[in-house]
Write a structure and sequence with these properties.
It is a single chain. This protein has helices at residues 3-19, 21-30, 35-57, 65-89, 95-102, 105-116, 123-142, 149-172, 178-200, 209-237, 239-245, 249-260, 267-287. By secondary structure, it is mostly helical. Helix 4 crosses helix 9 (178-200) and helix 6 crosses helix 8 (149-172). It starts with a helix and ends with a helix.
Length: 289
């Protein structure tokens, strides 16, 4: 296979991996695991694996003190907040619906960019924003199957937190590569959940095969594998094309939610999800124009 085919396959694998996160999150919750436990172990185990892979490749490097501070803030603040709200949203809505609502984060990026740089806003971006908002309004208003207003607000909060994470990390990536930044964001997020979980008495080691299996799956299949395959895919086909291909992620979650968890999927849900993804694709294309 040529580099382009390999790159596309790697990004598709990444989208599938990230798409399993909500599924394993529901299974972990059903096994009695708390959010701090799941996320502390998710990021802790993922950190160990990512560091080991980078060390084996000979690409592990210690960034400057300034980048370390930024990575800690991104991990303990932005990424931790997004992840906590995402998993909290699973308590109110189906995994597929959470994935669709979360995918409004590029629209938040557009809105924040408009506030900071109004000159960058184009009619295409405004149209893309309308598609994303319209898609969420459709699935949450017209077809409220698997929808809870509280869950919608929580996951929109996750999308907003993720948009802030992206904007700040883009500034950091001008002086450090993405893999190195990720390698230090992950342990920062893990530390925040360990401290919070122990401090609130909500951290407890998993007990039983199902509990451990879900945690290991979240740490590897839904975190390490998609992170590394996405970076590998970017190296072969570029960030813009990789970002567009990765829009398959919410579709994967919706499909797996139906197949594995028995979540209902209506025509309205599919149409609304398609509108959200279409908006994201427009945003990505406009960003490369």
């Amino acid at each position: 296979m040529n580099d382009e085919t390999v790159g596309i396959a790697l990004v598709v694998a990444s989208a599938v991996g990230f798409g399993t996160l909500g599924i394993f999150g529901v299974i972990a919750a059903d096994a009695g695991l708390t959010i701090p436990t799941v996320l502390a172990l998710r990021f802790g185990l993922a950190s160990v694996v990512v560091w080991a892979v980078l060390w084996h490749r000979g690409t592990f490097r210690l960034p400057s003190g300034r980048i370390l501070a930024i990575a800690f803030a991104l991990g303990a603040g932005g990424y931790a907040t997004q992840s906590a709200l995402y998993f909290f949203g699973l308590e109110f809505m189906s995994a597929g619906m959470v994935a669709i609502v979360l995918y409004t984060y590029p629209a938040f990026v557009v809105c924040l960019t408009a506030l900071l740089h109004p000159e960058r806003v184009t009619p295409t971006l405004v149209g893309a924003l309308g598609l994303s908002i319209g898609g969420v309004a459709l699935v949450t208003g017209v077809d409220p199957v698997g929808v809870d207003p509280r869950g919608v607000l929580v996951v929109l909060g996750a999308a907003f937190a993720y948009s802030l994470y992206i904007i700040v990390s883009q500034r950091a990536l001008t002086t450090v590569d993405a893999e190195t930044l990720t390698a230090f964001v992950l342990p920062a997020a893990a530390t925040s959940f360990f401290v919070f979980g122990i401090g609130t008495g909500r951290f407890a080691m998993p007990v039983g095969a199902t509990a451990w299996g879900s945690v290991l799956a979240i740490a590897t299949l839904a975190t390490v594998v998609p992170v590394l395959t996405f970076f590998a895919g970017i190296a072969k086909i570029g960030a813009s094309r990789a970002s567009i291909i990765s829009t398959a992620e919410p579709g994967v979650t919706v499909a797996l939610g139906a197949l594995v968890l028995g979540e209902s999927v209506s025509v309205v849900t599919l149409v609304g999800g398609t509108l959200v993804v279409a908006g994201v694709i427009l945003i990505q294309r406009e960003g490369t124009a």
